[in-house]
Amino acid sequence: MTKYARDEFDRIPEASSRQGVHRVAAGPSKRKLGPVMAVGVAALAVGVAAFFFFPKLGFSTADPLAMFGRSSSASGSAPSAEPGTTPSATTEPSQSPAPLATTSESTPPPPTPEPIAPLVDKSQPVAVYNGTTTAGLAGRVAEQIQEDGWTTDPIGNWGGLPQQTSVIYYKGEAQKGAAAALGTLLSIPTLVDSAEFQQPLVVVLGPGYQ
Predict the structure, then answer these.
(1) Cα separation of 199 and 68, whole Å?
(2) CA-to-CA dists, residue 152 to 128, 140, 175, angstroms
(3) Residue 136 to residue 205: CA distance in whole angstroms
(4) Is residue 59 included in any domain, yes or no?
(5) Which of 163, 170, 172, 204 is nearest to 186 (CA)?
(6) Is there a domain that residue 86 lies in?
(7) In Å, what is the CA distance from 109 to each residue of 116, 135, 208?
(8) In the chain, how many domains are there?
C-alpha cells in the first residue's frame, strides 16, 4: 500500500501496457526574498553612516584601513605627510674638512734679535776714588776700567764725606749711558746724576767693595 491518496492517475485501464505512474519528488520551495533584501538595506545604511560620520570621528574614508585601527606603516607603505605641511628634506651629516698634513720637520722660530747696546764714548776720562780703608783699592779698580778700554784720571783717595756704599756719579743725561756701562763692569748699581764734579764720570768706592 502507498502512503499517497489515490487520484485520477491511479484509475487506469487494467488492460493497459503501463502498470503505474511514477511520481516526481517535490523540489525544494523557493526561498523568500524578504530576508535578503533586509540584509542589503542594513548594509547600505551602515555604509552611508560610515561615509558621513567617520570623518567627524577622525577617520579618513580615503583610507579604509584606518577604520580598523591599522596604520599605514603596518602595511609596508611609507608614512604620508599631513595636509598643509611639506615633508622636510633629509639632511646629510656635514663632513668636516680633513686636517692638513703636517710635515715631520717643523720650521724653527726666527732668532730673537739681541738688543743693541747704546754706543758709549770711552774716550772721556773716569775719576776713581777710594772711600775705604783698603790700601791700593783705587789703583786696582782703575786697571780693570782701563782694560775695558776706558781712560782713568785722576786716581786717589776720597776726601769728601764718608760714603755708605759705592756710587758712580755722572754729569748730565748725556753721561747716563756711560755710567750704566761702568756700573755693569764694576757691579755698582747705584748711579747718581750730580753737577758737583768737574769730571763727567766719577767712581767712589765705598765700604764693603771687594
Answers:
(1) 118
(2) 7, 12, 15
(3) 11
(4) yes
(5) 204
(6) no
(7) 20, 53, 45
(8) 2
pLDDT band at 175 (very low <50, low <70, confident <90, very high): very high
- What CATH number did the domain enclosing 173 receive? 3.30.70.2390
Query: Contact, 186 vs 141, CB < 8 A?
Result: yes
Q: Give pLDDT tens digits for 33-48.
A: 777 788 888 888 877 7
* In contact, 21 and 9? CB cutoff 8 Å: yes
- 12 part of a folded domain: no
Question: What residue type is assigned to position 3 of the chain?
Answer: K
Helices (H) and strands (E) in the chain, counts: 3, 5
Query: Is residue 101 situated within a structural domain?
Result: no
Question: Residue 131: which domain range?
Answer: 125-205
Taking the whole predicted model, whether its pTM rises above 0.70 is answered as no
Q: pLDDT tens for residues 176-191?
A: 999 999 999 999 999 9
**Cell 758709549 identifies what position?**
120
Residues 133 and 200 in one domain: yes
Distance, in Å, from the CA atom of 137 to the CA atom of 140, rounded to the nearest integer, reads 5
